[in-house]
Predict the structure.
Amino acid sequence: MKSRPIKEKRLDDLESDFEPLLISCLRECAGGRWGLFGQNDASEVARYCQWDEAEQLKEIANKIQELRAEFGQPNAQVDRFLHYCSIRGSNVPGEPKLAKALLDEILKEKANLPDKADKATSC
């Protein structure tokens, strides 16, 4: 039973690292940098789109998804990011447009969430 709290702590650490890195990468990608969603990974362009933070973000997202699967509780933000990473096709918007769309979704959600202080004072 000791491994469960260790896994929960690991999950908490990964999730606390994930969101700030996600927002940072999305902002950079929305500004024109390619390589976050891996749309060009199969092409020769991929070697010019090397982006260490994006790779780290994908690794963290995959680890979170794996741990969350063990607990039976998905992380919607991670699932949404990995979904965007899986989108392929000739009519798919480019990575900067995808990044802006995902960033807008996340920021809109955050704006609609009540503050923790508001929760404590509300009935």
